[in-house]
Amino acid sequence: MDYVIEMLDIRKEFPGIVANDNITLQLKKGEIHALLGENGAGKSTLMNVLFGLYQPEKGEIKVRGEKVNITSPNVANELGIGMVHQHFMLVDTFTVTENIVLGLEPKKGLNIDMKKAESEVQEISDRYGLKVDPNAKIADISVGMQQRVEILKTLYRGAEILIFDEPTAVLTPQEIKELIQIFRTLIAEGKSIILITHKLKEIIEVCDRVTVIRKGVGIDTLDVEGTTPTQLASLMVGRDVTFKTDKTEASPTHNVLEISQLNVKDSRGVNAVKNLDLSVRAGEIVGIAGVDGNGQSELIEAITGLRKVSSGVIKLNDQNLSSYKTRKITEAGVGHIPQDRHKHGLVLDFPIGDNMVLQTYYHKPYSKYSMLNNKEINKQAKKLIKEFDVRTPSETTPARALSGGNQQKAIIGREVDRDPDLLIAAQPTRGLDVGAIEFIHKRLIEQRDNGKAVLLVSFELEEIINVSDRIAVIYDGNIIEIVDPKTTTEQELGLLMAGSKNKAGETENV
Amino acid sequence: MFNQFSRWQKIMIPVISVVLGLLVGAIVMLVSGYNPIEGYAALLSGSLGEGFYIGETIRQITPYIFAGLAVAFAFRTGLFNIGVEGQLLVGWVASVWVGLAFDLPKIIHLPMAILAGALAGALWAFVPGLLKAKLRVHEVIVTIMMNYIALHLCNYLVRYVISDGQNTTDRVPESASLKSPFFETLTEFSTMHYGIFLALAAAIIYFVVLEKTTTGFELRSVGFNQHASEYAGMNVNRNIILSMVISGAFAGLGGAMEGLGTFGYGFIHGAFSGVGFDGIAVALLGGNVALGVILAAALFGILKQGALIMPLESGVPTELVEIVIAIIIFFVASSYIIAYLLQRLKKGAK
Ligand SMILES: Nc1ncnc2c1ncn2[C@@H]1O[C@H](COP(=O)(O)OP(=O)(O)OP(=O)(O)O)[C@@H](O)[C@H]1O
Ligand SMILES: [Mg+2]
User: Fold this and answer.
1) How much is the ipTM here?
2) Among residues A115, A356, A365, B40, which is most buried (max CB within 10 A)?
3) Beta-ladder partners of A23
4) Spatial CB neighbours of B120, under 8 Å, sequence gap ≥ 6
């Protein structure tokens, strides 16, 4: 058989944990090969080994049949292996072209030949249908575009084998469709792809084969054709997983959050939230559905005090929050699972335990007379680690060393445990495996059943429909419609999100 | 991958660097026709060989500890305080000024003079802190400029305000002096004074504030990730200012040790003393932790003190010690660069 990559019996240890325990992965030329496993199963680690970021303790890697020693990403590049990381490595203030040629600049005498670089980038972009503007600044383009720049970067370096680590976690449904198209073009051009994703449907849609790993151990490699999401899920988790979230009818009571005529400006000073009204009652989950960039982030930042309110009122239990600082808002009873866990959610260089008390460290019992009580902090951390199944060697491990999904579980644990009257969950299950998603949804519903208000923002329509009791559709900074998740469909939501104010099927003059 | 840099390695990097620095120093001596064993023996006996030298070395270590703590504190909270030199100078002059201006019982006068040094240093660092917090002006630039302002302002004060047209001020009275007749006799009349105990106490305070208090938790958090700190409800700007102020207070205290202890007066500085800049090296070598700073300061004190005697006893010129120090710092810095690069790579990989 023609394998382009063979990773044989790879073992990789970290202090206190075996991340990869004799895993074998073989990639055929021209295939899209999925790598599936729970959070912390060791997927990113395995790919980092292949990309030369980690050295395995044991095992062999063959590229095109030849045994190789990948000691650094440079070696990987030379072997034609490129990786698109989940968190991009781009210089914000540089242009697309500058980012792509960084380190390999074509020279004209002593100067960088930017013209040549630009035309090369343009050429590759056209060939693979990436539609990237070589002159745009990274800071000005969308996350989806930034990802394409990362893809271009690997192609510019001559990659034949592309590794994608959870590429779709940060994308909107539309961008995911486009990415899948790009995958197909890449394959048609003779490339091979390894894809890490938690979305089983994506695997079934685009992949040829899938390798499943569980807790660092390789479980099986199988052909995707003929498998079902349920089958894959149970292989990966080791038990049956239900996809539909069970919940009883909501019994909402009084308004907890009441927003009226809210206006918020974005970072460029343009109105992003425009005269928005919204309320969330105790005992219900309100889902906000919308295409990215329609004011969701600004709305959340305004509620949580991270962004100034231009005008309008944000009331929490009849207390006006609109001029409060973040700390006061937190203490008033707002919890926030932030969209960007590395930027806002965690201090990556702190132990995971310290991160669990990031908003409460100054309260008893975590501190007394301004002196920290590490025993109590670690006790709390241990409790949350257990309750939320955060897989980490210990509570003193730096947050940076946890797998993406486990970092997310730690944040969710911290916020849910504070038991806030209003819990704002922005993309709470981004990057989580199916088992963890099920668990998180249960916890959100539990909060609701305990009489708390939950505001859920998600780009996943399925999640919004499954979990919410009411869905507010946001478009251009405004809530244009409230729909009932029991009667709506993804199609209807899609139309509304695109800004068509009238529900599908209804007439103009309703 | 910084966490793969185990505790053991974090300790070994500076130790190995010191060994390498000394080795290269030995080679330099050999090449230039000196006997390295004699050279180092002279260095050691000139810093630790006699009571007098020990006293002088300890006196030398004192300001290094303060300067090292000042740089390290800012660094641990995400800031570069290059202005330790200036903060130290204003602390020096302020403490001497208070020492001369009042006539009080020692139990009030000495603490007051020391406190004046700390306050002056804190105030000097407050300015770059404020500019950073409010206007995002980079603290490196401002602290460097503040060094020059400090130098000239202090010289002016010494000449025209605290003395009348002299190059030095009067000596501070006994009631504001850190001089210790006891230690002076014990060390064959060196200039050793009580400052070393304050320096060790400062190191303990450094450790407790940074690692054990909620303030330290906030300061470190802001140093690592401002966005997450803001999300968690911390006041980022206040913490930036506070970090600079505490760092400056350590530096100012170092100046007070010179003003009230080592010299007992203020004088016109033609140029920077260099202690503040050495503080950067001390902090780096000490890995920005309290104990590390003490050990690194001790090494610097020994080298600098021994360097004064070395030419007399072995003929090796004083400058050799500068070479050794430079090489130690080079190795420490480059291993940190390596660690930093690895960490960066990892950051991207996660
Ligand atoms: N640098 C590191 N130091 C210590 N432990 C690490 C390090 N990197 C990963 N680990 C541990 O190795 C295990 C596997 O992590 P990895 O990131 O490969 O998981 P993953 O399968 O990619 O999970 P996710 O789906 O959550 O991203 C985890 O338990 C993690 O805590
Ligand atoms: Mg991962």
Assistant:
1) 0.85
2) A356
3) A10
4) B87, B90, B91, B93, B94, B95, B252, B255
- The answer, as to whether pTM is greater than 0.80, is yes
Number of A to B CB contacts under 8 A, please give it.
98
Q: A405: Cβ below 6 Å to ligand 1? A: yes
pLDDT digits (tens, 9 = 90+) for A9-46: 999 998 888 999 999 999 999 999 999 999 999 999 99
In a 10 Å sphere around its CB, with 0-12 CB exposed, 13-18 middle and 19+ buried, how is residue B4 labelled?
A: middle
In chain B, which ranges are E strands? none
State if residue A215 touches ligand 1 by the CB under 6 angstroms criterion: no
Q: Mark out chain B residues that contact chain A at CB-CB < 8 A.
A: 2-4, 6, 212-217, 220-221, 224-225, 227-235, 345-350
In chain A, CATH 3.40.50.300 covers 3-237, 255-497
Q: Under 8 Å CB-to-CB from A472, ≥6 apart: which residues?
A: A278, A286, A287, A288, A289, A479, A481, A482
Residues in chain B within 8 Å Cβ distance of A87:
347-348, 350
Q: What band does B4 get if pLDDT is binned at 50, 70 and 90?
A: very low
Q: Is A407 in the pocket of ligand 1 (CB under 6 A)?
A: no
Q: Which CATH superfamily is domain A255-497 in?
A: P-loop containing nucleotide triphosphate hydrolases (3.40.50.300)
**Interior angle at CA B72, CA B71 and CA B74, nearest 5:** 70
Cα–Cα separations (whole angstroms), residue A42 to A168, A238, A345? 18, 16, 22
Nearest to A133 by CA among A99, A166, A107: A99
CATH 1.10.3470 assigned to domain B51-333? The reply is yes
Residue B134 has pLDDT above 50, yes or no: yes
Mutate to test the interface with B, among A347, A355, A372, A415 (most CBs of B within 10 A): A347
The residue contributing the CA closest to ligand 1 atom 29 is A40
